[in-house]
From TrEMBL:
Name of the featured protein: Stathmin
InterPro entries hit by this protein: Stathmin_fam, Stathmin_sf
Lineage: Eukaryota, Metazoa, Ecdysozoa, Arthropoda, Hexapoda
Domain of life: Eukaryota
GO biological process, one term: regulation of microtubule polymerization or depolymerization
Gene3D superfamilies tied to this protein: 6.10.280.30
Pfam families listed in its UniProt record: Stathmin
Bias (Basic and acidic residues) ranges: 9-21, 143-168
Annotated stretches, region: Disordered: 1-22, 143-179
């Protein structure tokens, strides 16, 4: 019995030892697993923090780029608007200059037309006075020629009368001398 009791006690000691070893193994395994889990959690948190940092940097970079592009877009828009305003102002100024030139040209045309009309009227009056003068001269010449013609006819008549008289005197003398 003592032998059995010793064997039992050995078995109990062995089973306690096994249980103790199993508990030690379980506790060591649990500690190792917990350490691994903690290391994994720390690693994951470090990875997440690193990823958050990279995302933050990327977001800041994107925001800077967006702001830069927005500023460039605004600058380009302002430049285009300024250029457009300048172009409109230049076009309006050109229109105004052209209208002024057209007005000046119209005024010049009116002055030239008025001058031409005045000259034409002067020329018409000169021509009319010359025509009247020519008409008076023609009438004068006609009168003078009529006068000359009358004078010439009068002389011719006188010459005929003288001839007739002479010829009648000659005839009388001849009839007187023949008779």
């Amino acid at each position: 019995m003592a032998f059995l009791a010793a064997k039992m006690s050995k078995i109990e000691e062995a089973s306690k030892k096994r249980e103790e070893q199993a508990n030690n193994f379980i506790s060591q395994t649990r500690e190792a697993l917990e350490q691994k889990m903690e290391a994994h959690i720390e690693k994951r948190e470090s990875f997440i923090n690193d990823l958050k940092y990279k995302l933050k940097d990327h977001r800041e970079s994107v925001e800077k780029t967006r702001l830069s592009l927005e500023m460039q877009r605004n600058e380009v828009r302002n430049a285009v608007e300024e250029k457009y305003k300048t172009a409109i102002a230049q076009r309006n100024e050109y229109k105004k200059k052209m209208l002024d030139r057209l007005k000046e040209h119209e005024e010049q045309v009116q002055r030239v037309q008025a001058g031409m009309l005045k000259k034409m009227n002067e020329l018409e009056s000169q021509i009319q006075s010359k025509l009247e003068l020519a008409q008076k001269r023609r009438e004068q010449l006609e009168r003078e020629q009529l006068e000359k013609l009358r004078s010439h006819e009068h002389r011719a008549e006188m010459v005929r009368q003288n001839k007739e008289r002479l010829s009648s005197e000659n005839d009388e003398q001849q009839t007187a001398s023949s008779g």
